Amino acid sequence: MAHLRLIARRLMQLTGVLLGISIVTFLLLHMAPGDPARLLAGERASAETIAAIRMQYGLDLPLWRQFITYLANLLAGDIGQSLRFQRPVSELIQQFMWPTLFLTVYVVCLAVPPTVALSILSARNPGGTADQIVRLVGIAGLTIPVFWLGIMMSRFFGVSLGWFPVSGYGVGFTGHLHHLFLPALSTAIWLVPVLTQSLRAALIEKAMADFVTAARAQGASEREIFWRTILPNSVLPTLNLLGVMVAFMIGGAVIVETVYAVPGLGTLMIGALLGRDYYVVQGLTLVFAMSTVLVTLAVDLLAAFIDPRVRA
Amino acid sequence: MTDAPMTPVTPPPARRTTVSMMVAIAILGGWLCLALAAPLIAPYDPDAVDIMNMLSPPGAAHWFGTDQVGRDVFSRVLFASRVDLFLCVVGVLPPLLIGTTIGLLSGYFGGVVDNLFMRIYDLTVAFPFFVLVLAIVGVLGPGLLNFVLALTLVGWVSYARLVRAEVLTIRESEYVQAARCLGYRPAAIVTSHVLPNAIGPIIAYAVSDAVLVMLAGASFGFLGMGAQPPLAEWGVMIADGQAFVQQAWWICLFPGLAAISLGLGFAFLGDGLGQMQRRQAAA
After folding, report:
1. What is the pTM of this model?
2. Start-end ranges of CATH 1.10.3720.10 in chain A?
3. How many whole angstroms separate alpha carbon B125 and alpha carbon B162?
4. Mean pLDDT calculated for residue range A274-283
5. Residue of chain A nearest B238, judged by CA positions
6. CATH for A99-311?
């Protein structure tokens, strides 16, 4: 019952946020300086074309009427039409989303094992040599521009050593794994320090908790205490962070996909931005925001199932 | 002070600057000097095209080599530092000022402003930061000015959120209650009691934000959405060099190293500030 009530409450909050997201993405098109019809038609369009576009997209209606239309279209699953591809944006997204999804899961898989290992190494002896080294490497990892790292790695591992392809998505599961290794590694190098910081802090904090003392008093070995008591309790704060991180990873995917020419949503976004394909930009922004909100929701619910205290 | 303690008072620990702090000051000071003195140091005009010497590797004549149209990479890296340092300042200050003001109002007075702000906050965090800034710049049109505008439009929210959280605890502190009892006007309490006590976390956040802003600025330059070529900016230079990276790795390598070193400067500054705050708290 508690679970159902939590889900209901979160869904209510979600409705408000989703409405807000649709308002922001709607206003995005209207933020552009000048006439949206002119933007959509392109700079060299004739007056007749602009008038026709204004009629076609209902841009001559008052703003609130336009928003109602936009919202109604969204609810019907229509997020606009690409001006460049002459295809519905939703179709484009379906076509381009798989490499991005694959990349995101790949990054998480590459990032989690080193995060756990480095955090344990650091938290075993806070302030010790290992901890200091991990901290310094973490600081360095955060300051490396992802796109530069991508170019340098593709030059070294891709061109000089020839170990990995430097662009594209490949064919089949192993092909994807091979092609997306460098892009995933570039993103993971940046993600690991952030996650490590959080998990390390949680491990150190939980090591002082009363339930650890209680376990020790009951005669549990230090090994058991660590694996059965401290680690499971520390995972939750990091899990919450992972929800926020997905938002960052979407941003990272935009850059990394551009560097490695991966045909994903990031490449689609940059192409649309540079080609002034505004409905694609609008639709993608909407979809990215929706995904972030849904992942956050999923993480919250997962946390509630793992930890009964969150449900209250 | 008649009832002085009998035991000798231990002198407060000298606020010795930490290693991180010194490294940070050295790096940031160094970059500031290089940026200011760029016209004096740079051996070549950063925009001078020299077709005879294009793609020449690093050597005595060109320390960092030349790019595909023969421009001196070393001079361009130096001049680009002016753009990137400037970006860090104009990318951090406006969100900081706007966010702090709104956070103070929202946290101290609560009510409608606070409610409205929290809704805006919930909404902003729903968007991936980078994507939202990218979309706004895309619609406004690529360029440095629009990048800073978009960054301000989105970035103030996190500052306001941080300040609001600080203010909520400071508001209930005894010295603020005392000021209130003494009849100080709310405006005076906010500016002379609340703000000074909230400033530490704000500065710490601003320093870590500077790293993100610098990286975002370079990324936008790289993607063609920020600084526009032929302006020398690290991200733009890396984008320029990407097509030639097989023959001429130096065009990409050096601007990237420059960006990392500046980022390290800010990261160590943040680290050092954190250490000093912890020492003060412990003292």
Report:
1. 0.87
2. 99-311
3. 13
4. 86
5. A148
6. 1.10.3720.10
Cis peptide before B13 (omega within 30 of 0): no
Q: What is the pLDDT of residues B243-254, one digit of tens each?
A: 888 888 899 999
Q: Which has the minimum average pLDDT: A109-113, A177-181, B59-63, B278-282? A: B278-282
Chain A residues with CB under 8 Å of B256 CB are 144-145, 148-149, 151-152
A250 vs B131, B140, B222: nearest CB: B131
Model confidence at B2: pLDDT above 50: no
A187 in B contact zone (CB under 8 Å): no
Query: CA-based Rg of chain B, rounded to a whole angstrom?
Result: 24
- Quick one: what percent of chain A has pLDDT higher than 90? 12
Residue A88 phi, psi (nearest 5): -60, 140
Tell me what pLDDT residue B141 has: 87
User: Chain A: nearest CA to B126, how far in angstroms?
Assistant: 6
Mean pLDDT confidence for B169-194: 90
A203 touching chain B per CB within 8 A: no
pLDDT beyond 80 at B4: no
Evaluate if residue B41 carries a pLDDT over 50: yes
From chain B, pick out residues whose CB is under 8 angstroms from the CB of A289.
126-128, 131-132
What DSSP line would sit under B142-205, residue for residue? SSHHHHHHHHHHHHHHHHHHHHHHHHHHHHTSHHHHHHHHTT--HHHHIIIIIHHHHHHHHHHH
What is the ipTM for the molecules in this complex?
0.86
Mutate which of B18, B84, B127, B213 to disrupt the A interface (most A C-beta within 10 Å)?
B127
Mean pLDDT along residues A172-197: 86
